[in-house]
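Homework help thread (please don't just give me the answer)

Our assignment gives two proteins as sequence + structure token strings and asks us to describe the second one. The first is just a warm-up. Here they are:
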Amino acid sequence: MRGARAIIRWAGMSLAVLASACTLLPEQKTVDIYRLPSAQAAVSPPGKAQAWSLRIRSPHANTTLDSARIAVIVQGDRLSTYGGARWTDAPPVLLRARLAEAFRLDGRVASVSTTASNVRADLELDSDLRAFQSEYRGAVPYAVVSLDARLISTATRRVVASRSFEVAQPAEGVEVPAVVSAFGLASDALAGQVVQWVVEQGARAQSSKSE
């Protein structure tokens, strides 16, 4: 009888301990997942599509930028992230998709692919992502996107052209959704500049190749 009472007492104490432990567990925080806002429709300048093909590689990035966290610099050189907010993917993947979309909307390159599909191409766009973060300039956060681009001949692996691009787009507010919208505009602007540059340099490279 005493043994049964001891077992019952032990079971009751165990349940009490478990119940108290459950109350001490931290509450789960909700994480908002953000897409890079859709690109604006581009208007192709006059001229027919060029016959050469382009493959876009995911930009190289450091471990901080190669993360789904949304980076922010509030003051000085200290890089932090927005709490409770994430991108759908790491910025190099998001920017690669944005660049591919911009080229397809532009229509001046006959064939555009990414390294995800591993399609053979005449030229390859390789790059280093130097910035993809929100930076406070005074009281206003700016979405800053910076890219060092290289256009490479896939036949010779020679760099035929290189250039650096940077866009800083002010956000209309300090809240995360406003900052995300600014990232969309900055990415669109940078992609437009890259497209124009690649089309010009690609045409030049293919022209000298045929001479």
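The one we have to describe:
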Amino acid sequence: MSNINEQLAKAMESDSASHQYLTFQVHGQKLAVEILRIKEIIEFGRITVVPMMQQCISGVINLRGSVVPVVDLSARFGQGKTEINRRTCIVILECQMAEETQVVGFMVDAVNAVVDIGAEFIAPPPQFGAGVRTDFLRGIGKVDEEFVLVLNVERLLDFDIPTNLEEVASAALA
């Protein structure tokens, strides 16, 4: 964990930070978020459950005196709750929501590494078959011979967007 946080700190100082992404695993899929959004990565710990929250919000954590909501990305993608193991961690990031900066945690299965993905190596999201709703994606990046799904954080945190296909169908009928 400290190795990844060290990589993040070095990447933030470099001139190529705008092309660098933190990669992580969620339900067997390799995902990425721009490192400029990442504040830190913490080990999975105690989460306080808040009644009446959406199913994909696991609860809140106390991060040095601040209350930070934690989104279970697996649940947000409609793939069930994350199974907690020794590599499960929380990626703390900042995003713009309703014209203010919000700090939020994403629960992930495991953090991989910081990678460079130039804009020329990011294609638009596919219209089918990615296993993740395409409106949650900014694009698909190519790293070596692998594809990485680059997340659109603001869309992920827009809870008016349904999580699974049944919710989409019922919203369309309404």
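TA reply:
I won't write it for you, but here's a hint about the kind of observation we're looking for: Residues 165-174 have pLDDT under 50 and may be disordered.
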